[in-house]
């Protein structure tokens, strides 16, 4: 009974392709996030969504677009994939907006490899 | 932007030894969190700290929120092989660093020899 689940776990694709990663949380949380973990294991925020509205948008390329059909889902679409997009992408959720006592619960990650 | 300096970067220890790692910042934080990431998995919350000086334990793990609000440490006592993984500190800055989102340290990779 996974709290934050994301699919696929592994994704291998060619440069220039468009791909999506899906995320679902069953915790009843109001805020969802996407983090990128590079090869040095550094975790960097990409997006956060609160009640279906984008509340913070880090300066990521506009080839990346988050889409939230409802508060339990936050999907990540990536257009025109580049080699540098290869990384592990983590979805996370929290009860409220970032800050204070809102701890994040993470999914297991989706490893994207761009060839 | 604001950064968290986490050290050491990696540790190789013998089973049974105690471990200590810490995180520092040039500015104050009002929440400190410690996460552990196992290979192929996402980070899992170990301990959350919300007040300066707070000392909290979770089994063999103990973490403290520094009095200056600019640092935190995590101790693991009597390490066992399953303690292997990457430990991350993370925090929220009251100055809205990283646009208010949780800021992560670069991690401490722990290896335990049986």
Secondary-structure class of chain A: mainly beta
For the residues shown, what is the average pLDDT of chain A? Answer: 92
Distance between the termini of chain A: 34 Å
The outline of chain B comes out as globular
Radius of gyration of chain B: 14 Å
Shape of chain A: globular
Of all chain pairs, the largest interface belongs to: A-B, 25 and 25 residues
Mean of residue pLDDT values of chain B: 92
Radius of gyration computed on alpha carbons of chain A = 13 Å
- Number of helical runs of chain A? 0
What does this structure look like?
The complex is a heterodimer of chains A (115) and B (114). Chain A contains no helices and 11 strands. The model of chain A has no long low-confidence stretch (mean pLDDT 92). In chain A, the strands form 2 sheets. In chain A, strands 2, 4, 5, 6, 9, 10 and 11 form a 7-stranded mixed beta sheet that branches. In chain A, strands 1-3-8-7 form a 4-stranded antiparallel beta sheet, with no helix packed on it. Chain A has 115 residues and is an all-beta fold. Chain A starts with a strand and ends with a strand. Chain B has strands spanning 5-7, 10-14, 19-24, 31-37, 43-49, 55-58, 61-65, 71-76, 85-92, 103-104, 108-113. Chain B has no helices and 11 strands. The mean pLDDT of chain B is 92. In chain B, strands 2, 4, 5, 9, 10 and 11 form a 6-stranded mixed beta sheet that branches. In chain B, strands 1-3-8-7-6 form a 5-stranded antiparallel beta sheet, with no helix packed on it. In chain B, strand 6 and strand 7 form a beta hairpin. Chain B has 114 residues and is mainly β.
